[in-house]
Amino acid sequence: MFIGFLLISTRVSADFVNNVALMEPGVPFKGNAYNGARCFSCMSRLYEAVWPSLSHIYKRPRNFTDNCNDDRLTETNVPLVHCDTICVSMYESPNIAGVRIGGYIRGCMKDVLIKGFNETIVSWYRWMQRDSCRPYRKKELFKLGGDQVDESTIDVCTCYADFCNGNTAATMFTWLISIILLTFTTLLHG
């Protein structure tokens, strides 16, 4: 069992190393290694209610739906888009009159913001090289200036696989821990 795991791991690693040569700077996994992903495209309905105020920052998603808030999305209730960059999932919980109201924005990185994401942040946190989840200050991430200064934060997760932006960070973390524990248990008892 362990030898089979090593052979598969070695093969996957060899394929990855061989395909790294195909990569162009700033283009994630070009060539045979990465042809894009299918990403969910939606915003929570709370964004639709204030869309005229947000339409100069965000690009319109495929739909506005509270299904966007679900922990696990399916293509039957939220539309997909083909993405040649990476998928993103963003969560914020603004405080309105003392009440926290949470909302999700999901889509392809190039299709979320009109001005695009701050390239310094994308490079520094290596969005194009790995999956990640962390909070960012909106004024820096969205390149807001002038009277649009917003000191609040937004949680952003980036990923590469089909449907990967359809899970919350907590769900993905739980899934990852489960896989690690299962692998460790198999290796220990195998």
UniProtKB/TrEMBL annotation:
One of its GO terms (biological process) is olfactory behavior. GO terms for cellular component: axon; neuronal cell body. It comes from the Eukaryota. This is Uncharacterized protein.
